[in-house]
Amino acid sequence: MSWKTAYRSFYYEGAPEPEDIVLEPAETALLVIDIQNTYLEPKPDPADDRRWQPFFARMRETVIPNTARLLELCRARGVEPVFARVACHKLDGRDRSLSQKKPGFNYLLLPKDREDSQVVPELAPQGDEIVVTKTTDSALTGTNLRLILHNMGIRNVLVAGIFTDQCVSSTVRSLADESFNVVVVEDCCAAATMELHRHELEIINMIYCHVAALDEVTGFFA
To answer: What pLDDT is stored for residue 1 in this prediction?
Structure first.
């Protein structure tokens, strides 16, 4: 199944196929969201760690290798890589948004200079590639990324990262509201479970973005 017919929700079951996507490299950025060391660390509780093993496997076997390939492709084509990561400026996290202070999984205290808040080594930014730190789910809401992209003449944004149903989705919706053309590279993304991943892709596809696989995206460049 091609990207033109995959991940259709109720709203778009019978909609016409979208036109071909053509990405001009100079007008396109790759945004890598929250692929940070903290999310690859074993869980302290053994039962919880076992529960997360499918996610860890997808990250190690699919998302990180595919995102590395996508970064290599974008760098070679002149597409600007940009990175967003969850990180607070205050050691006690006072500057975090409410969503990152809530108890449970969403509680995130990641001071910006600490090792667990950094992008994983396999995807480390190079040279002057831009990294924005955010205390919000959306990479646009809590940073100057919107201004940066506009200043660089970016119209199209490829999106990779985690979690599909949380920060990726929030960012995609914000980008769409700002009239960027968004392509989510589905095999460069992950949620806690494949069910959540697929469900969120169906929700955002055709409304806020187009969803495509890495092998398809390689054919989108002008």
So the answer is: 76
Are 104 and 146 within 8 A, CB to CB?
no
The model's pTM is: 0.96
Q: Across-strand partners of 133?
A: 85
CA distance 73 to 54: 27
Exposure b/e, 30-53, CB count within 10 A at least 16 = b: bbbbbbbbbbeeeeeeeeeeeeee
The tokens for 82 are: 């940009």
Distance CA 129, CA 154 (A): 15
Instruction: Kindly list the structural domains of the chain, giving each domain's residue range(s) and its CATH number in brackets, ordered by start.
Output: 22-217 (3.40.50.850)
Cα 101 to Cα 109: distance, rounded to the nearest angstrom: 8
pLDDT surpassing 90 at residue 150: yes
pLDDT tens digit string along 38-61? 999 999 999 999 999 999 999 999
